[in-house]
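Lab meeting notes turned into a lecture example. A postdoc, R.K., suggested we walk through two folding results consecutively so the class can see how the record format repeats. The first protein's sequence and structure tokens come next.
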Amino acid sequence: YKGEGILPASPQDVWECIKPVAGGLRTKWDQNVKDFEVIEAISDAVFVCRTTTPSAFMRVISPREFVDVVLMKQYEDGTMLSAATNVEHPLCPPQPNFVRGFNYPCGCFCVPVPGEPDRTQLLTFFQTDLGGYLPQTVVDSFFPSSISGFYSNLTKAVKALKA
């Protein structure tokens, strides 16, 4: 799934809200992220992380956990990105009460809008296998509304950050 939108905030403010860091803002505004923890820092830019999600879709989807290797990078033009993919890690075996999901290569790109310092183009790419025994119709119904909610809630979060 791909999401794309222009947000009314600087790339730095958008990045502050979405960057995948322990104790970051993402768990406060993203209804699909319950907790985020760094399992291992490989370098200043590469981390193994565990993300947990609450139950969703009227509890049809039970809580999930994802373990990913995440790369964060900033380019000379001001674009910031996080890219991730599933990884297994000995310090993070599957936990009880969670279904282990898998992220295939995915990411978020915060791209400056030329000449508009308080606007950011956000591109998101999701390739997620939620795991478990969900009917494909449930998955197909969940993701579009989830992505729409992501952009809506992020817009509110960046506005609150500036207030």
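The second example is placed directly after the first for contrast:
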Amino acid sequence: LECDSFCKETILHRVLRNVNSQLLVVRPDLNIAAFEDVTDQEMKSGNGMHFSIHCYKTTTPSAGMPVAFSVQVENKSYYMCCEEERGKMAVRFKEGEVPEEFPGECNVIFFKKTFTPCSSRAFKFEYSLEQGMFLAFEQEGGLRKLILKKLSREDEVDETTKMFP
């Protein structure tokens, strides 16, 4: 008998890029994550850019691979989660480690899905607690901020949700 909780299987170490080849950079001091153009020098320091993608076993593979994200910023670990803020869902990074397993619903799990059947290197990440909500970016001032975005249809092709781990 398998329990319904997610159990950690592997950890991948990746940077996350958007369709513009910008890297996702986490800035906990400003409470944001945004896609930015990054120099080779900044890339070497890797501060807030090198993600650990925690992959979990699942009893429902059709939903996608369950994953959680964490990142190191100045020798501290942060994990990605979603919280309701002023009536809408927001992506946040909290100090601490991703849990080893989850007894039930969890605001840190996303389902990794191929972006389109013909685009096997690109993925989209659906929030586990709300079907049709995906990690995406939106232009806000000079930033391309990481957000949760509702897609009207499962097969909708929205370039703002396309990511390359």
